[in-house]
Design a protein that fits this description.
- The protein has helices at residues 44-48, 55-68, 95-109, 113-118, 121-131; strands at residues 6-7, 14-15, 41-42, 73-74, 77-78, 82-83.
- By secondary structure, it is mainly alpha-helical.
- The chain folds into two domains: 1-39, no CATH class; 40-144, no CATH class.
- The strands form three sheets. It has a two-stranded antiparallel ribbon. A two-stranded antiparallel ribbon has the order 3-6. Strands 4-5 form a two-stranded antiparallel ribbon.
Length: 144
């Protein structure tokens, strides 16, 4: 972990909302511009998180991921991630990813049970700005 914030990609784009604990306060830094998010990675388990709210779009997105990125989906399911610039899929299957996929499917089938059990209004307020800058794209980027 970078003590000055967590890099979000290989180009070390940083998102740092600071630390509000009086014992070790660190001021927040402005969020990077969307154009600074380069050499990014798609992780299919993140797409599954939308399953409850946009099932048709989620399934279309997952279908495009499987079709557009060779080796991302296999007989064992989705691999961990794919680099959107190179199209190279990870060789790993992570239990974290598979757990999120199963939790998302369960949440979709059980009418938002996980969200109701764990997400408070304060949590939603804190997370919204972070995910608002995400770029959802299922095709490799072309280099400029």
């Amino acid at each position: 972990m970078d003590p000055n914030g967590n890099p979000s990609n290989n180009d070390r784009t940083l998102v740092d909302h600071g630390w509000n604990d009086p014992a070790c306060f660190r001021a927040s830094k402005p969020d990077p511009a969307a154009s600074e998010y380069t050499n990014g990675v798609i992780t299919p388990h993140a797409a599954f998180l939308a399953l409850r709210y946009a099932p048709d779009k989620t399934l279309r997105n997952l279908t495009r991921l499987e079709r557009n990125f060779d080796g991302l989906y296999t007989e064992w399911g989705f691999r961990d991630s794919v680099n959107v610039d190179t199209g190279v899929a990870s060789s790993y299957y992570l239990s974290l990813d598979q757990g999120m996929i199963m939790a998302s499917i369960g949440n979709a089938l059980a009418d938002d049970m996980l969200r109701r059990a764990f997400v408070t209004p304060e949590f939603q307020q804190a997370v919204k700005p972070v995910i608002g800058v995400e770029e959802f794209n299922a095709a490799p980027r072309t280099r400029k």
